[in-house]
Description:
By secondary structure, the chain is of the alpha/beta class. It has 3 domains: 4-50, no CATH class; 52-152 and 251-366, Glycoside hydrolase/deacetylase (TIM Barrel, Alpha-Beta Barrel); 156-244, no CATH class. 47% of the residues lie in helices and 16% in strands. The chain contains 16 helices and 13 strands. It has helices at 18-27, 34-50, 77-90, 96-103, 123-136, 147-150, 156-166, 169-183, 193-200, 209-221, 224-238, 243-250, 254-262, 282-295, 316-324, 362-366, and strands at residues 4-9, 12-17, 52-58, 61-62, 75-76, 92-93, 113-119, 141-144, 266-269, 305-308, 327-335, 338-339, 348-352. Strands 3, 6, 7, 8, 9, 10, 11, 12 and 13 form a 9-stranded mixed β-sheet that branches. A hairpin with a 2-residue loop joins strand 1 (4-9) and strand 2. Helix 14 packs parallel to helix 15. It is globular and about 60 Å long.
Amino acid sequence: MLWRFFFKCDRISVVLDFEDFCFLLMAIQPRCCVDGLLKSCVERGRYIEMGKIYIVMYHYVRELTHSRYPRIKGMDIRLFRRQIDYLTQNFSVVTMEQVMEAASGGGRLPERSMLLTFDDAYMDHYTYVLPILEEYGIQGSFFIPGKTFTTHQLLDVNKVHFILASADENRLLEDILERMDHYRGAEFDYPSNKELFREYAVPNRFDNEKVIFVKRMLQTALPERVRNRISSDLFEKYVGVTEEQLAYELYMTFDQLMTMKRHGMYIGVHGYDHYWLGELEQQQMQEDILKGLEVMAPFIDRKRWVMNYPYGSYNEEVLKYVRKEGACLGLTTKVGSADLRMDERLELPRFDCNDFPPKSEHYLEIG
């Protein structure tokens, strides 16, 4: 059972859990009066709130209705504006620098702190997000896979997104299973389609089992050369433009990233190739992170930077390596609010933008 203790003092209300209540009881001297106990509870409650922060994750933000790919899973720009209006009225939107300072013990965050994060270096962020953030006088933190602006190649994650946005999921599933059978055996060895479907076709709160299966096969489960062949084949069949053309349309350039930085936005690290870092061999994992750090050098402080794990994939080796290379914070895809007093600094949870109005109020249920 989760015990909660409610106190009201000087017109201020506070809720403490059992652990914090016990902490207070042990700290209070016998001679303290009841009023002193209540005031101490209030101060303790304020301190608890000071360490809590809601970190929100965004990806595509665009005019979906008029987009070439209206089925892409993103937030329409009109809803984004309404959401930012809601967030600025109901939370204290803070900068990444404030969070870094608070995490290191050098400062406190305001109550109901919120940090806005944007993944994958999309042109959407420059065209639509930046002007709105500047209009509201708030900062966003943007996490960049190094490959997006250095080689202008389409990331596997985006190949899959645009294939899914262009194809019927049932027909797409048939195509993938057929190609998996084609490549299995002579050159590549991997489990049967039935075994893989049983293991990976697990729905989550945003995707059904078929969509999850397609994503996992083309993102991580199959050997890299197989999934590259299959995804390129399906991209050509369904999407209607070349990978090179979409890459140039989709991602920010070096100069645009510099402009974002000059306008006060925070720029962080999202690997180089947008790999599932926790699934890689140690050497490949380290090479990807190091390559990402090298190309991101103009945008980051190499001794104090923030890591955002692609797909939320990491393990102890990843944590150990990014810590050694100077990461002071790490962002995951675990769902919930972050507590800078209690959470591991390199494993901070985030909410999805769909957890907040006008999309939903799931953040109230999750806490």
